[in-house]
Amino acid sequence: MTEDPHPIPQHIAIIMDGNGRWAKQRYQPRFMGHRAGVKSVEAIVQHCVKIGVSALSLFAFSSENWRRPSKEVTLLMELFSLALKQQVKRLHKHNIRLHIIGDTSKFSDNLQKQIAYAEQLTKDNTGLIVNVAANYGGRWDITRSVQQLAEKVKSGEIEPEDITEQNIAAGLSTASLTEPDLFIRTGGEQRVSNFLLWQLAYTEFYFTDTLWPDFDSKELDNAISSFCQRERRFGKTSEQIQDEHA
Ligand code: IPE
Ligand code: IPE
Ligand code: MG
Question: Domains of the chain, with CATH numbers?
Answer without folding.
Answer: 11-139+178-244 (3.40.1180.10)
